[in-house]
Write the structure tokens for this entry.
Amino acid sequence: MIFPKNNEEIKATYVADKKTKRLLTRIKANQVAVLVHTDIDEVAALEIIEKKISAVINFSKSLTGKYPTLGLKRLLEAKIPVFDVLSEHEIFPKLRDGNLVIVNKENKTVQFPDDDNPKIILPVKEWTMEKLEYFLELAYQNLERELDNFITNTLEYASKEKNIVLQPLKIPELNTKFTGHHVVVVVRGNNYRNDLYAIRPYIKDYRPVLIGVDGGADALIEYGFVPDIIIGDMDSVSDEALKSGAEIVVHAYPHGKAPGLSRVKNLGLDAKVIPSVGTSEDVALLMAYEEGAEMIVAIGSHSNVIDFLEKGRKGMASTLLVRMKIGSKLIDAKGVSTLYRQIVYF
């Protein structure tokens, strides 16, 4: 049941999850997103906006001022109110999707009356553009320090993760053939939808191997394509995408543990496993390279400091090493789109 919101109060049903990308697979329009997301990243914010939700209640700091992420700004620009809970409380694990939440904007409180602790009222801070600008200014002042820490961490871990380029990836026998083919790797990063839309003519003409990294598979399906391979830890891809007929590859920890494998098996599907350090994006690119791809086009890939800080990573050692190994075979989707248009028009 959804209630209208007024200037003093927001009353609606909610969806709660500590992982925002998991929450986004369940939430519907006009509901409230209850999450635990420090420094809300821009990609998550844009997807929240797309869901047309009523408000965001965050049991963490939506913007800390450590680095200039733009997620909170995007939400406020879209007129979605954002409230940070100011006190720690054990109520979060007891929250149940579809129950009621009441935000009193005048008293700056939030209450979950349908849950196990109906009398608990928590204080919240509502974000305004004025508060946002202050913290963003602080973030830009802190950026040099964060960048220094990031570079130091990257170099330190590069020596530990160098085997990702020195030794071949342990790739199981795949049904999908890469040799001599172009490959498109889709990641849910900044502007991934715009980039995917822009290179649709290239995909239709060249028919490259299509790899969806977790939720990137859903992006491919959204634009009318069927992924050949879905790779990742399986925490943000939909059941529908997994059932699309794509070959499924679960990214496992270096020691072999693969938490995402159980989800695939519970759907009655088969999967192969690749153990490796780094991100699933790194593994997808390296897999395409080592399997003989002629050219690899990256869509939504993470390539700068802010991208990695937004994902909670303190460095990008594996990503740096993988891109060094792949070299000129890797092309950003924006470049493909521009070049392809020029060729067509010529």
Notes: DSSP finds 14 helices and 14 strands in the chain.
